[in-house]
Fold:
Amino acid sequence: MDTLDTLNAGEPKLSLSIERNPGQDGAYCLRPGSIVGAVETDNLSLLIKPKIGIPQLLSLACYAMDKFNPQEDPFDFVRDESLPDALALSLNAMARRSFARGLLHGYRTEEEALYTVRGRIRFDEQIRRRFSVPLPVEVRYDEFTDDILANRLVKAAAYRLAGMRLRSAAARRGLAWVVGILDNVALAEFPANAVPEVQFDRLNEHYRGVVGLSRLILRYSAFQSGRGAVRANGFLMDMNQVFQEFVTQALREALGVSEPVFREKGIKSLDEGDKVRLRPDLTWWDGGICRFVGDTKYKRVIDERIPNADLYQLLAYATALNLPGGMLIYAKGEAEPANYRVRHSGKTLEVVALDLETPLADILNQVKGLAEAVKALRNQSREVRKAA
Structure:
């Protein structure tokens, strides 16, 4: 029990509901919140499976991070695996496809002291460090190498997964193969909150999938216990965050607008005294005027009813932004589509749902239909402003 309490105090929070199981000494019933994934300690192995299935989860998360949209679902073969094993198998499969043409190479600038001149001499450094000594020579040169950011991300992700307790022998062998291929690539550490991006073009486009998955692994695989002597590692994802980021990215693509136009954007305040802060998930801006507001919700809805608090929150957004209404976007199965007309205000609160238990291509097609509803609300806002 102490171990579970400690893990619940870590970052990110596991949000576990822990209850003693009546009639069984030392047995507890765990009810997960929005966090899914796996955590390992010396004496505990905890797996929290997503409701939508691992292939759908990985597809949504990769698209949200890197707009990786393959023609076919690349994760379908890991349907019955635990999440860490599924990640390891997928990383190996994507690496094999990407490395089939040979490892990607690029130019990296090096600065060294050499006994032969290579590239350009750094005269300022030569004088500062060597005075009148002619050798070694301070030089700067460009080296064509496979030790580049894209390969470093893949190798770091493989090492991160290898540190987890994988149950699949094939997953362990696959990671060993990836690490072996990248033997000449430096092993770098990337903090979870600052995983660098890779710019893609026609020369490295075939790396997009494996780099996207690697960045996903590095972003979500860091876990530190919050107190005590328990040390844990694992791969944890907050479904609220994944769902919000996916919907934002997919809608932005479907609408053909940029991040500054369609994004999360803080409202100054709800009240005139600037004391109640608001921050909706989705806003669409024309210059300094907000034309649309929405919120994403990935959570359990009891009895298939929309929580009043969610509707109140959306109404507050629409009121503060002086909009005729707004939109709540749920995962299908958590809520059914509905419209609510608010008394005495004329505002309409629209509730829609996305079915996430389908292939990514089908989900993106659903988002295209959702984008039309968003456009309609935006146009409605324009008409109301003109009429006023």
In short: The first helix runs from residue 2 to 8.
